[in-house]
C-alpha cells in the first residue's frame, strides 16, 4: 500500500464538509474550497466515518486508519488525493485579507412610495414603507445619479434599480432618469445597467419598448397560478383579477426582450406550500426565467412560514429539482434563480464573505433623497446613512455592515454553506436575531436545501 505521507500537522477541517443524498445520488460539499464531489456508497460511508470519528483528525490519522482497514484502501487513496489538492476537508481562512477600498456601485431608487396593489404580505406596507404615500421628484432622481457617479470613484460599471411601491406610477421620472444617467455616463466614463421591478398593471406598448431597449434586467411580479396570485395580490378596492391583467402584458414584454435578462418573481406563503406547481404553471405560460421566494413577514400572520412548514418546504424543493430535470430533458427548460450556483468561477472572495454589499456598496434612496442600507431598511430611522446631496454622513453604520461577514459571525463560521449564502440577508438577520451577528434560522435551513438541490441538478447534468 503506497500512500502519500501528508504529516500529522495536516489537520482535516470537518466543519466544512457536508454530505447528503438526493434522488439516489450521493454528494459531498467542501465548503471551504467550493468543491462538490459525486460519491459512490463506499466513498460516502468513509467520508461520514471521518467526519464522525474523534480518532481521525489529520491526514496522517487517515493514512494509519487505511493501513488498518485495507478494504477502504482504494476509496481512501482517492480521498487523500483530494485532501492533498485542497478539495476535501480543506483549510479555511484564518483571517480576512486586506480588502480593496469599497465604493458605492449600485443604487435602488424607490421612485414610488405608493402602489396600485394592496398585497397582503408586502414588506413595504403595501408600498408606503410605513410612511406617507409619495413619488420621487425628478430632481431627487438626478441628484441620486450624480451622487452615484461621485461615490463610485474609480469604478466604471454602475447599477440603478427602479423600485417601489410600484415604479410605473412614476414612469416619467423613471424614463427621464435613465436618459439623464446615460448622458452623464458619457461625460464621466461610466456605464450604467438598469433594472426595474414592476407588478405589471401599468405596462403598455410604449413602456415595454422603452424597458426592452434600456433595461438590462426586468423583474415581473407574479406568484403563479391564478388562484394563488389573486389570493394575496389584489388591486385597491379589489377590482378585477391581477393575474388576468398582467399575464398577457408579461408575455408580450418577454417576447420583445429577445435574449435580455428578466425574471418572473413570485412569493410562496403558507397558502401555497405546493409552490413547485406554481413554478410549473409559470413555465407553462412560456416564462423560462423564474424565481419564487419564501415570504418574509411577521410570524403572527396566518400566511407566514414557520417551523411547522419546514418539512413540507424541503420536500417541495426536491420536487422542484426533479421538475427542473424533467422539463430540461423534455425540451421545455426553465431556469430557477436559487438553483443557479456557479462551481467553476464563483464570485470573488469579498462577495462570498459579505454577499450583497448592502450598507456600503449598495444603497437605497427614498423619494426625499435619504440614503438607507437597502430597500428593506427604508423607513427605519436608525438606519439613515445620509442623503444624495450630502452623501454618507453616518460613517459608523457602513462599517458595521462591512464587518458583518461570515468570518466574523460565530454561527456562520462553522457552517459548510457560508461561502455560498454569504451570511444571508442582513435585514432578516437583524429582524430575527436582533443584531448582525445572528442568523435567520428558517432562511438558513431553506438556503441549504436550495444549495443541495442545485448541486444535485448539476450532478445529474
Give the helix/strand layout.
Layout: E1 17-22, E2 25-30, E3 35-39, H1 41-52, H2 59-68, H3 73-84, E4 106-113, E5 134-135, H4 138-151, E6 157-164, H5 171-188, E7 191-198, H6 205-214, E8 217-221, H7 226-232, H8 242-257, E9 263-268, H9 275-284, E10 289-294, H10 310-329, E11 335-336, H11 349-354, E12 362-365, E13 370-372, E14 386-387, E15 391-392, H12 396-403, H13 410-413, H14 418-421, H15 426-433, H16 441-460
Parallel strand pairs: 4-6, 4-12, 6-7, 7-8, 8-9, 9-10, 10-11
Antiparallel strand pairs: 1-2, 2-3, 4-5, 12-13, 13-14, 14-15
Summary of the model, kept short:
By secondary structure, the chain is of the alpha/beta class. Helix content is 39%, strand content 16%. The protein is built from 16 helices and 15 strands.
Q: Could you characterize the architecture of this molecule?
A:
The protein is α/β, with parallel strands linked by helices. It folds into three domains: 68 residues; 234 residues, Aldolase class I (TIM Barrel); 58 residues. 39% of the residues lie in helices and 16% in strands. The protein has 16 helices and 15 strands. Strands 4, 5, 6, 7, 8, 9, 10, 11, 12, 13, 14 and 15 form a twelve-stranded mixed β-sheet that branches. Helix 5 links the parallel strand 6 and strand 7. Helix 6 packs across helix 8. The radius of gyration is 24 Å and the shape is globular. It starts with 16 loop residues before the first strand and ends with a helix. The N terminus is likely disordered.
